[in-house]
Write a structure and sequence with these properties.
By secondary structure, the chain is an alpha/beta fold. 32% of the residues lie in helices and 15% in strands. It is built from twelve helices and twelve strands. The strands form two sheets. The protein has a seven-stranded parallel sheet, with helices on both faces. Strands 2-1-3-4-5 form a five-stranded parallel sheet. Helix 1 links the parallel strand 1 and strand 2.
């Protein structure tokens, strides 16, 4: 069996192992694959694995030998799942590979916005403490999380883990999701309609999938419903927020801070308004990128392939199309 990874450089720059996939067949790993090279690299492949390389309906002729497509991520918007399903090709993604990793990144962004540790460290290194003549000082008043409310939009595995960490820091937790069920055991916790969550939360964290209904969920109208001085955190998808509206809210003070690991266009264009906003932390889509999580992606992809070989595929995102 021939397995081809179209873009493996980001997933594995050399610090994790491809061995779980090598054990399943002849493995070829390409660092990146430009569109012009797709047909040649897919030729003869039984299984095609992609992270961010797009596979569209127009690419179907190049995928004549392909019997399964694996997405080396949870999000699968880079693949036309319906087109592949019509050809009988299952598309399998990877879920829950980095729940703790992403949740910890959420708290890292939040704590940095509340405590400004990097800014104060830079201040000390610049000599400001030595020059102050005082035993302590602060450039921004620290914010204590205990007793505040975090609203979590999207309450899947990552959202739930963020809620647990928030509770550990003494935050009250509200959650909004499509099908509220299995509330966590800690208290205070409540499911809440979106408008109530926005108006009641000191911190809003986004953990919902990107769909036509959630695109630009955070916009001028929803920002106006939030508490003045609230903090917004996004580690889900950049397109969940209207970046121009968020930039305006940061400049006006309606938002006290914004921490994001994702942008609508990645890498950002030079005129992205968030690059010049105050109280903004932007990390380069790295919340998922611990060695632990990236090895999990490879391991779980190998398990997807084994289950497919056994005739019991899992994590098939185009199962409905395949059934037609």
């Amino acid at each position: 069996m021939k397995i081809v990874v179209l873009d493996g450089a980001i997933l594995n720059p050399g610090d994790v192992s491809w061995k779980p996939l090598e054990a399943l067949g002849e493995l070829t790993v390409h660092d990146t694959t430009p569109p012009a090279a797709l047909a040649q690299r897919a030729e003869g492949a039984d299984i095609l694995l992609t992270n961010k390389v797009c596979l569209s309906r127009a690419d179907l002729p190049a995928l004549a030998s392909v019997r399964m497509v694996g997405v080396l991520a949870t999000g699968y918007n880079v693949v036309d799942i319906d087109a592949l399903g019509e050809q009988g090709i299952p598309v399998c993604n990877v879920v829950a590979y980095g729940v703790d990793d992403v949740a910890q990144h959420v708290m890292a962004l939040l704590l940095e916005l509340c405590r400004r540790t990097s800014e104060h460290t830079a201040s000390v290194r610049a000599g400001e403490w030595a020059q102050s003549g005082q035993w302590c000082y602060w450039k921004h008043t620290p914010l204590c999380l205990e007793g505040l409310t975090m609203g979590i939009i999207g309450f899947g595995s990552i959202g739930r883990r963020v809620g647990e960490l928030a509770h550990a820091f003494g935050l009250n937790v509200l959650a909004n999701c499509r099908t509220p069920k299995n509330p966590p055991s800690y208290s205070p916790f409540a499911f809440a309609p979106l408008e109530q969550l926005l108006s009641s939360s000191d911190i809003v964290a986004l953990h919902c999938p990107l769909t036509p209904q959630t695109e630009k969920l955070i916009n001028a109208k929803s920002l106006a419903k939030m508490k003045p001085g609230a903090i917004l955190i996004n580690t889900a998808r950049g397109q969940l927020v209207d970046e121009a509206a968020v930039a305006e809210a940061l400049h006006s003070g309606q938002l006290a801070g914004f921490g994001t690991d994702v942008l609508a266009e990645e890498p950002p264009v030079p005129d992205n308004p968030l690059l010049a906003t105050p109280n903004t932390l932007i990390t380069p889509h790295m919340a998922w990128a611990t060695a632990r999580a990236r090895q999990n992606i490879i391991n779980l992809t190998a398990e997807n392939i084994r289950r497919w070989q056994d005739g019991h595929p899992v994590n098939v995102v185009n199962a409905a199309t395949l059934a037609k």
